[in-house]
Design brief:
Order of helices and strands of chain B: EEEEEEEEEEE
Largest sheet of chain A: 6 strands, mixed
Radius of gyration of chain A: 13 Å
Structural class of chain B: mainly beta
Strand content of chain B: over 45%
Shape of chain A: globular
Strand content of chain A: over 45%
Distance between the termini of chain A: 41 Å
Number of helices of chain B: 0
Number of strands of chain A: 11
Structural class of chain A: mainly beta
Number of helices of chain A: 0
Largest interface: A-B, 25 and 27 residues
Oligomer: heterodimer
Radius of gyration of chain B: 13 Å
Largest sheet of chain B: 7 strands, mixed
């Protein structure tokens, strides 16, 4: 069945450093979405990628979809304390249900 | 537009009891999905309902069940509670129609269930 693996599970960075989380699938994805969950909150939609090789930017965040549509990455440039939280990738396609990666917890040390 | 509403916000139960959680989706959304979130396991998919029909089901025991009403509101039920069922239960609604979705999920604030 469709599996979405996300690495790393935890990432500690100093404020101002960059951060990247990766999402890998065993099967080709129709699309991939990214969500952010702040501590004590609920996941909130960030972006969706649909096309092979697609790159989208939101201020300091850069999202990429692999050429084979089996992997994706989220990169944050110059992290700030407001970036703290857990970042999830999500694939809603297929008969196996709606699959989230386990998430990457971003911890920022001032 | 009102967001996704989940009730209750917190719940404390004892082993062996059963519990029912409620989710009211965003108006116009017919797809409601449920997730269990624990610190070590991330967001695990329970099931999805669309137009009162269960469309997808995750890998959970039969103690976990759900239903959806004609107004798209959904409930999930957990019978014979176990300590390991302690978790945050999140529901999400979307405008998803078919099996492949390009629609984003809108989450409720969740129900924090503690089983003692």
């Amino acid at each position: 069945g469709q599996q979405v693996m996300q690495i790393p599970q935890y990432q500690h960075v100093q404020e101002g450093e960059d951060f990247t989380t990766y999402c890998n699938s065993s099967t080709t994805l129709s699309n991939i979405q990214w969500y952010k969950q702040r501590p004590g909150g609920h996941p909130v939609f960030l972006i969706q990628l649909v096309k092979s090789g697609e790159v989208k930017k939101q201020k300091r965040l850069t999202f990429q979809f692999g050429e084979a549509k089996k992997n994706s990455s989220l990169h944050i440039t110059a992290t700030q304390t407001t970036d703290v939280g857990t970042y999830f990738c999500y694939s809603g396609g297929g008969a196996d249900g709606l699959t989230f990666g386990k998430g990457t917890h971003l911890i920022i040390q001032p | 537009k009102a967001g996704v509403t989940q009730t209750p916000r917190y719940l404390i139960k004892t082993r062996g009891q059963q519990v029912t959680l409620s989710c009211s989706p965003i108006s116009g959304h017919r797809s409601v999905s449920w997730y269990q979130q624990t610190p070590g396991q991330g967001l695990q998919f329970l099931f999805e309902y669309f137009s009162e029909t269960q469309r997808n089901k995750g890998n959970f025991p039969g103690r976990f069940s759900g239903r959806q009403f004609s107004n798209s509101r959904s409930e999930m039920n957990v019978s014979t509670l176990e300590l390991g069922d302690s978790a945050l239960y999140l529901c999400a609604s979307s405008a998803r129609q078919g099996r492949i979705t390009n629609e984003k999920l809108f989450f409720g604030s969740g129900t924090q269930l503690s089983v003692l």
